[in-house]
Write a structure and sequence with these properties.
Elements lengths: L3 E9 L5 H11 L3 E13 L5 E6 L2 H14 L4 E4 L5 H11 L6 E4 L10 H14 L6 E2 L3 H8 L7 H12 L5 E7 L6 E7 L4 E7 L9 H14 L4 H17 L19
Parallel strand pairs: 1-2, 1-4, 4-5, 5-6, 6-7
Antiparallel strand pairs: 2-3, 7-8, 8-9
Helix pairs in contact: 1-7, 2-3, 3-4, 5-6, 7-8
Amino acid sequence: MTGLAYVIAGSEATGGAGIQADLKTFQQLGAFGLGTITCIVSFDPGNDWAHRFVPIEPQVIADQIEAATSCYDLDTVKIGMLGTPATIDTVAAALQRQPWRHVVLDPVLICKGQEPGAALDTDKALTAQILPLATVITPNRFEAMTLAGMDAIDTVDDLAEAARRIRELGPRYVVVKGGVELPGPDAVDVLYDGTDTIVHSDPKIGENRVSGAGCTFAAAITAELAKGATVPDAVEIARRMVRAGIEQRVSGHTPFAAIRTVSPGA
């Protein structure tokens, strides 16, 4: 099963994250990928590599979604950075116009480059309108604390508790990513389906986050689900792909490295 993998997300100009990373991941895993751009994010090298954020007009987003869903029988979609309540309204309305076999949500809660008040409005809209539609949600440690209403996530038990709380918000599966930010020698992810808790653990590769790892992880899950995999199998392949990509990460003039899009286990 080749699979049609669709993504609705932002553009990130350096190529390590965003829709650029998503489409490369789809291609690497043998899925046919297509995408709708919701915003443009450009790092600012003159301002300590801060984010410059420009939203796409809602009607332009709607037009892109109309074209993609009219051209193909799409049933598997990844949702990445949306960025504004207006964008979330547009995407939520479009998603509800047809049935989806799988919706994978990478919950970019704080849109860097926005004022705190606008970011909070975006977080609330995403949680209310998009999160309940998700088959799988893949929050990192900070996003999981926000969604679960927890002050800290410092242990594997905390990851599991956050996953249980987040699942009560509507998604069928929750993958909470401890990554390098969880104390200890291992990068730990917890998958929860409402009944079973599966803990994935591997030794950390360095102590710093790698740009695009979260995007690639969710995109890999999306590609595998589009091809017919189960959620646990898709998560396992995504973990292997991200690990390989971090091992072969790309360094540039930025203070952070970018994940390289490679086959799982490469």
